[in-house]
Design a protein that fits this description.
globular, two-stranded parallel sheet, 5 helices, 4 strands, 109 residues
């Protein structure tokens, strides 16, 4: 979805900033969840690099929730999931934005 969206909008994307804290940041103590989270994050980064040639992917796993929210709100191009945190940032963001999992904000998800 991200690739098709960027082509339709005629975006030139040179870098991605992935906010990937989740279980890694919050230290749930559940090693299985941490491992799954890390694998998913790695898969996402590799997929982005495969779809968008010459792109740099930055992963930030150290931000605090308020800092991460501000990064989402101020991003010039925001592509995000459908959770309540992401949807709130999507609504506040004034740049180009999309959420393929959130086609209707009356029923996100």
């Amino acid at each position: 979805e991200l690739y098709r969206w960027s082509i339709l909008k005629n975006f030139t994307i040179r870098e991605f900033h992935v906010l990937g804290g989740g279980n890694i940041l919050h230290n749930t103590g559940d090693q299985n969840r941490i491992t799954i989270s890390q694998r998913m994050l790695l898969h996402l980064c590799r997929t982005l690099q495969g779809l968008f040639l010459n792109v740099t992917v930055y992963v930030d796993v150290s931000g605090q929730p308020d800092e991460d929210f501000m990064k989402l709100v101020s991003a010039p191009i925001l592509f995000t999931s459908h959770g309540s945190y992401a949807t709130a940032a999507l609504l506040a963001n004034t740049g180009q934005k999309a959420s393929p999992a959130c086609s209707n904000l009356n029923f996100p998800g």
